[in-house]
Amino acid sequence: MNRLKRRSIACALLLIAVTGSQSLGLAQSPVLDGFAPKLSETQRKLEEQFRGVPSATNAREELRRLTAEAHIAGSPEDYATAVYVRDQMRSFGLNSDMREYQVLLPFPRTPSIVELIAPRRERLQVREDVVPEDPSSASKKIVPLYNGYGTSGDLTAPLVYVNYGLPNDYEALKKVGVDVKGTIAIARYGNSFRGVKAKVAEDHGAIGLIIYSDPADDGYTQGDVYPKGPWRPDSSAQRGSVQFLFIYPGDPLTPGLPAIPGTPRLKRELALNLPHIPVQPISYGDAQRLLKPLRGPARPKGFQGGLPFTYHTGGTSDVRVHLKTDIEFVTKTIWDVITRIDGSVEKDRWVVLGNHRDAWVFGAVDPNSGTTAMLELGRGLGQLMKTGWMPRRSIILGSWDAEEQGLIGSTEWAEDNAAELKEKAVAYLNVDVAVSGPNFGASSVPSMWKLIRSAAQDVRDPKTGKSIYDAWHGRLRSDLSESELYDANGNEKPATAPRIGPTIHFIGWRTSAIQLSNTMLPRHKSGARLRCVWRMRKACHSITPTMGWSLRSLSTKRSVWRCDASSPIRSTRNPC
After folding, report:
1. Which domain holds residue 496?
2. Which of 284, 308, 325 is the last residue of a domain?
3. Is the C-alpha dihedral spanning 520, 522, 528, 532 positive or negative?
4. 328 catalytic residue (yes or no)
5. Structural element, H or E, at residue 208
6. Torsion angle, CA of 353/77/402/404, rounded to 10 degrees?
7. Confidence of residue 537 (pLDDT cuts 50, 70, 90)
8. DSSP state of 417
9. Mean pLDDT of the region 75-83
10. CA–CA separation, 362 vs 78, rounded Å?
């Protein structure tokens, strides 16, 4: 299987790991939290049965099928992945159906133009090179480089380097006398969602925005670039949406309502979550041709990147750039796949697990490592149901579409089912990027920490043979300094529990940049096992949650709904 570099990820909950089918054989708490002693014993036996089902062989085939073609949202190839996921779930004996929504999606009519006009005339490549070692990189179905929901435009203006393009960067420019109004801004990816960069540039009067990944953040200064290593090569650029998710996510024309026939639609110019300027991603190979000739003040504090020259702010007439984008906005059908297992006791209490399925290109890590693990979870649950098992509460598995464009599929489903979610939702687990490297990590709301730790203690890490929890804990301690490990008398300090991040964001195996290979496939199996332990305990324990807790993001990166045991789900459009 080709090794694939992973796209940066922001926002999302996940998990993945795969262990052997044998029992862990490690010390376990005699009674699971939330279970009476007899039910705890039964639960452990069910989990042991499940752990024998997921397999790396199945995961390999599922990932191959899901990533055989580039499958951007709304395309025939995207539809084929929806049919595949639905049919796989049905083959496991589960009730699975597709739900369609008609949403506004942007596509490039023609490849964008970025051209240096002064001090010399040079048209930039704005195209990723074919990698000889990776035949998939030559696919004719790969969409040109663009940022979703940026507008069409044809403009020429001076160029200003705005660092990460955040408010403090514009303040730094103001202090050195650089005015962005009427210019094209160029920002590097990082430190914030790209839609924020577009909004801040627009608010400061920029008429266009170019975004690139600097090698200091994702490139050769970090290590070997693809295909030799996992880091971004010089012709690679990051596609991604610049929709203003912080205003509202989902279909721009139907805020607060599902995008189905009969729903009133806004005119596009009235949609508050869309940018009003052209936005274009480029590679750092192209970016250096724009940045190197810049004049003006030299690198305010924190502005220097990894390219081999001094960064200047620009804003003078020495460097002028021509930017042309040609974006078509089209109403397209997208397809969520919803799989449901009814609860035996509390049918109207829902435990929801989801991840998106669409990708800018092939999506082997983001999102289909998560989809593969979810399919193996479905396989395992189907096997348990054949023995007569049913969860206490209902389980819903959601395969969302059009997440990349703006968390659309999950948002529309949440809006479509808002009344029921308000009354029935118990918890949500997101599994966008399930495997992207060897290191496990997790983030959640505090009330979920105990559940995550207990599940990680009961599933084996495929790399070390220890429990996932012990491997996680050991790796974190190995990163500590001596002063953090030992007190002034040389005595070892008590071990602290691995830190779980403060938001529902991530459960899975990861690294700062990743390539996917056959060595990752066992983690898909483990991921399904770990996910099932989490899911079964949440769906089956005898105590319904009474603590106030919220799970953010029914898609993957921004909040789509909030579930709180002490209050109804808030507005599906409130980004928290």
Report:
1. 37-102+334-540
2. 325
3. negative
4. no
5. strand 208-212
6. 100
7. low
8. T
9. 98
10. 10
How is residue 314 annotated by DSSP? B
User: Pick from 39, 23, 20: which is nearest to 31 by CA?
Assistant: 39
Q: Are 13 and 452 in contact (CB under 8 A)?
A: no
User: What pLDDT, on the 0 to 100 scale, is given for residue 496?
Assistant: 66
Same domain, 346 and 312: no
260 plus 390 within the same structural domain: no
pLDDT above 60 (res 299): yes
Checking if the pLDDT of 503 tops 50, the result is no
Instruction: Find all residues with CB under 8 Å of 58, minimum gap 6, and list them.
Output: 375, 376, 379
Residue 41's contacts (CB-CB under 8 Å, 6 or more residues apart) are none
* Two tokens, residue 528: 């399904």
**In the prediction, which pLDDT does 52 show?**
80
- In this prediction, residues 51-71 reach a mean pLDDT of 91
Both 402 and 464 in a single domain?
yes
- pLDDT-based confidence at 570, cuts 50/70/90? very low
pTM of the model: 0.82
Residues 388 and 313 in one domain: no
- Token pair in block for residue 11: 């926002």
Letter for the amino acid at 237? Answer: A
The catalytic position among 376, 403, 404, 412 is: 403
Domain boundary among 304, 325, 346: 325
- Specify if 25 maps to a domain: no
d(C-alpha 214, C-alpha 307), whole Å: 7
| C-alpha triplet 505, 506, 509: angle, nearest 5° | 165
Would you mind telling me the total number of residues written for the chain in this entry? 576
In a domain, 270, yes or no: yes
- The DSSP annotation for 283-300 comes to -HHHHHHHHTT--SSB--
The pair of structure tokens assigned to 343 is: 């609860």
Mean pLDDT score of the chain: 82
Phi first, then psi, for residue 371 (nearest 5°) are -65, -40
Q: Which residues contact 454 (CB under 8 A, 6 or more apart)?
A: 29, 32, 33, 537
